[in-house]
Amino acid sequence: RGPAPPGPPQIPIIGNILPEEAPWEGIRQFSLKYGPVITLRVLSTNIYAVNTVAAAAELCEVRSSVYSQRNPMKMLDLCGFNEGILFETNVTHLRQARKLVASGIGPRELDKYRPQLRAHIVTFLGHILHAPEQFLDHIRDLPIGIMLEIVYGYKTTEKKDPFILGADILVHNYAKASAISDFLVNWLPFMAYIPSWVPGAGFQKTALAWKTQGDTYTEETFQYVLKSVANGTAVPSVVSKALESKEAYKRHVIAKSAMQMVSGGADTTVSASETFILAMLLHPEVQKLAHEEIDRVVGTERLPTYADRPNLPYIEAIMKEALRWHPPVPVVPRTSTKDDVYEGYFLPEGSFIMINFWAMLHNDEAFPEPMSFKPERWLDVQLTKEIDPLGIAFGFGRRECPGKIMAIELVFTVFVNILAVFDIVKVRDANGEEITPPENYTNGSITAPLPFKADFKVRSTQALQVLQQDLEEVGR
Ligand code: HEM
């Protein structure tokens, strides 16, 4: 056994009060004083926060048999976000779910989906061209459209497609239900047994409404594939392949994991893309260097593709720095499944383990001026596990993000294509003054910039022609 890991002093009953704004930064501050793994308590729940790469690698990789479970917080459970893949606690079902996702979007599958990916990105550039002021909507719809096609073989035909709108609602509900600071029931799980008419238990009604929305979406999208398989119109997709597979997948594993691929793939890549736009607005000098690199390497006769990635080190540096500066997923929960001792400290079975990627990516020894956006820190650097944002921001061990390869391809291709065609500039107010957006972020478990304004100017007539040609080619 041994003592609990050290941590800040606790107030009786209440425990520790975590800041509502960016609690992961508050936890990083505590870890500077108390060490890599610290104890926090919120009401009756102990949290063990893991703040360094070395500790996360030891627990999640070396001791993966103890730290690879993820129990849903109570509100997520009530909202039906349990099961599937993200919060699946049944070991057999989780194994099936991981297999389903890995075989659905592995590197070989991605090669096949590349034409669809390109069509979606070119169409997205067209939307930015025609309605730049709605860029946040376009960014939001892009990954949902891609995921719907890959996961269900469903082609969206219009901006207000019901499956896009439904996914938007799910993503919003998930972000709210999983916010660390909202919903007291997450910290006082016994509240889940209080009927919804009792004052203060209004979350029960919210949870029921969100569960109904989630269940309906999961079923409707699944039925779409079942029907298209039955009438012979199915396009190969993650779900159609799972239905035809020899593996005896449980129905709910397919339906729920599929839904979570859409919602998990959407919000994270949206966050990364919005962070990128914000960074370009705040750092025009970075954007200028990026434009120069693209013009030099890709030229102006065609749009860049993912194959250009090895030749574009500065765009690579922008991508790494965006994922470090504001990782879309700042922390993730795990649940330990055995009593364990780490560096002499005791972590009891069933503990709530919080892996704090934010703290790892804002470690001021590894990253001087960690709060500043500085892509140049990635040029001529010896990448190690300790510092590589692509090795940290997607998690560790058996529960590492199964969409990682696809996510990197998607965000890189989106960033480089926006840069190839557009100048991202600040909008001006009525007096002609430039509006500089603040660096304000949401506090959900997937964090993204609060809505801000930006304008997109086509860089040249050549860029416009190339885009128009590609738009004609993809014909969407
Ligand atoms: C920039 C984009 C993305 C980031 C930063 C990201 C990050 C993460 C992180 C940190 C986790 C938890 C890992 C852990 O517990 O150690 C995760 C899990 C997951 N991600 Fe991603 N992700 C991204 C994109 C995607 C995409 C495109 C998909 C599409 C399929 C996806 C699907 C999932 C799923 C299904 C899980 C749950 C896996 C499990 O619990 O076993 N993610 N992601």
TrEMBL record:
Q: Which keywords does this chain's UniProt record carry?
A: Heme, Iron, Membrane, Metal-binding, Monooxygenase, Oxidoreductase, Signal, Transmembrane, Transmembrane helix
InterPro entries with a match to the protein in the record: Cyt_P450 (IPR001128), Cyt_P450_CS (IPR017972), Cyt_P450_E_grp-I (IPR002401), Cyt_P450_sf (IPR036396), Cytochrome_P450_fung (IPR050364)
Which cofactors are reported in the record for this sequence?
heme
Q: Give compartment(s).
A: Membrane
Which positions are annotated as binding heme? Answer: C401
Check the record and name the Pfam families matching this protein: p450
Which Gene Ontology molecular function entries are recorded, alphabetically?
heme binding; iron ion binding; monooxygenase activity; oxidoreductase activity, acting on paired donors, with incorporation or reduction of molecular oxygen
Has the keyword Signal been applied to this entry? yes
Q: Which family does it belong to?
A: Belongs to the cytochrome P450 family.
User: What's the protein name?
Assistant: Cytochrome P450
Q: Which organism is it from?
A: Antrodiella citrinella
